[in-house]
Specification:
The chain is α+β, with helices and mostly antiparallel strands and 267 residues long. Helices cover 30% and strands 23% of the residues. The strands form 3 sheets. The chain has a 5-stranded mixed beta sheet with strand order 4-3-12-7-8. Strands 5, 6, 9, 10 and 11 form a 5-stranded antiparallel beta sheet that branches. It has a two-stranded antiparallel ribbon with strand order 1-2. The protein starts with 8 loop residues before the first helix and ends in a 19-residue tail after the last strand.
Length: 267
């Protein structure tokens, strides 16, 4: 007979006895559940500790235990399959524009060089390796958009960007280097911070090389004089203060990928 049926007929007519029996029933049920919870929790803790010990002992692959790296690569392939020039980040109205917020200062410790120029690795002109000043970059067709910059820390800002589409920049200066299966690497002037992009991401119509934010020239802490904006990727890919661009047949180095993050970093 179950605990719920332990009440005798005599006790049924006695409110005090009924109350005492109810209290005892509750205590017995709670005791059973508590013992079961401790058992399940203990087994889960043992299994979790064993799984972590196994994972922590796996050989590293590009700075991350290989099972985690496999997960990151699977995530990248899903995003690359899902990506398309027709898949656009949401755009906003001017009334939605917010005040900017800095998101990292690696490579920005010093003020921008007044004689800044952009080196395009592997491209030559009549004078040798291609270097461009801001005046040359700003001659290209200007594009503007209002999109959301999402930081991997969990915050976001709606910002207005002004610059040139990377696809227009590449068509002007590196048309022969844009094979769909190739990559683009970008670095700060001192190579302290660097990102890599698959060519499809670089050539996305919303990927810009920007010199303006919220209608004004970029400030030093936001990447002056020129930065990358990729609205479909987290802020860790939106490199500030570009000093060098390289078109590459192989995957370029990526600062945060080397520290365990997803190389693609899309959302």
């Amino acid at each position: 007979m179950s605990d719920e049926n332990l009440v005798t007929k005599a006790e049924a007519g006695n409110p005090e006895a009924q109350e005492s029996d109810d209290a005892g029933l509750v205590e017995r049920v709670m005791a059973r559940k508590t013992r079961r919870s401790f058992l399940v929790g203990g087994l889960a803790a043992i299994a979790g500790a064993g799984a972590w010990e196994w994972l922590d002992s796996r050989r590293p692959d590009d700075g991350v235990m290989w099972p985690l790296r496999l997960t990151l690569r699977a995530n990248e392939q899903l995003w690359r399959d899902y990506s398309s020039p027709r898949r656009l980040a949401r755009t906003f109205d001017p009334a939605d524009i917010e005040a900017p917020r800095p998101n990292g200062n690696v490579g920005l410790e010093n003020e921008p060089d007044p004689d800044w120029s952009l080196a395009v690795d592997g491209i030559t002109d009549a004078d040798g390796p291609l270097t461009l000043g801001m005046s040359e970059i700003q001659k290209l067709p200007k594009a503007e958009m209002i999109t959301e910059l999402k930081c991997i820390e969990g915050w976001s800002r709606v910002l207005q960007w002004g610059g040139v589409r990377f696809q227009d920049f590449a068509a002007t200066y590196a048309a022969q280097n844009t094979d769909p299966n190739s990559y683009v690497g970008l670095e700060t002037p001192e190579q302290d911070y660097y990102v890599g992009l698959d060519m499809a991401s670089a050539m996305h119509p919303q990927t810009l090389l920007c010199w303006e934010m919220n209608g004004a020239p970029l400030t030093a802490k936001h990447g002056a004089p020129l930065r990358l904006v990729v609205p479909l990727k987290y802020g860790i890919k939106n490199l500030k203060r570009i000093g060098r661009i390289v078109f590459s047949a192989t995957r370029p180095a990526d600062y945060w990928s080397e520290r365990g993050y997803d190389y693609y970093a899309g959302f």
